[in-house]
Amino acid sequence: MNLFRLLGDLSHLASILVLLHKIQTSRSCRGISFKTQALYVAVFVARYLDLFWRYISLYNSAMKVFFIGSSCYILYLMKYRYRPTNDPSIDTFRIEYLLVPCAILSLIFNYNFMPTEILWSFSIFLESVAILPQLFMLQRTGEAEAITTHYLAALGIYRALYIPNWIYRYFTEGVIDPIAVTAGIVQTGLYLDFFYVYFTKVLQGQKFELPA
Amino acid sequence: VDAERPKDEL
């Protein structure tokens, strides 16, 4: 474990807590893409099933359980408890355009042609693009509540921090994970436009608004 | 350098 990865994981944890806080306090999931949240459930289940046969550490297992549990809970909140506040008519990104290419890529690029490793690759590719329905929705509505932007910022910072972690591991441990690095760079890249508006507007106390 | 995935990452 190094500081970059620890801070990255904590940022990921924080993002989910911020999202839960937003939903619970406003009693609404307005502005949140159900499709993105459903994709995260698929990502976590596909990747963290190794929970059942591979023990790394208590930290590792606890985080995996938390990510699977909290993402399913968020889906439940959106689909049942706060269903009237969820507006599917603005959540229109076609997720098959993400699922199919990710499935094909995971069959080509994996570290071992076996179901668990293919699922792992699939989850890495899918995670890198899972935010697109959410960003697409933001683009359509043109604005967002501050707390929603804090959620997105924490989520973006999480993968951004994994990049120095991989550089650090390359030099200290001599290992490189080309699949995760490539997908991680793509994933972080998708946030650049968002980060620009977030750091220049929201953190200066202005409203998150995209230019028309 | 080995190309492999570190199994301890989340």
TrEMBL record, chain A:
The chain crosses the membrane at residues 52-76, 97-113, 119-138, 150-167, 179-199. It is a multi-pass membrane protein. InterPro entries: ER_ret_rcpt. The keyword Coiled coil does not apply. Keywords: Endoplasmic reticulum, ER-Golgi transport, Membrane, Protein transport, Receptor, Transmembrane, Transmembrane helix, Transport. This is ER lumen protein-retaining receptor. One of its GO terms (molecular function) is ER retention sequence binding. One of its GO terms (cellular component) is endoplasmic reticulum membrane. It comes from Pleurotus ostreatus (Oyster mushroom). GO terms for biological process: protein retention in ER lumen; protein transport; vesicle-mediated transport. The keyword Transit peptide does not apply. PROSITE patterns: ER_LUMEN_RECEPTOR_2 (PS00952). It comes from the Eukaryota. Belongs to the ERD2 family. It is found in: Endoplasmic reticulum membrane.
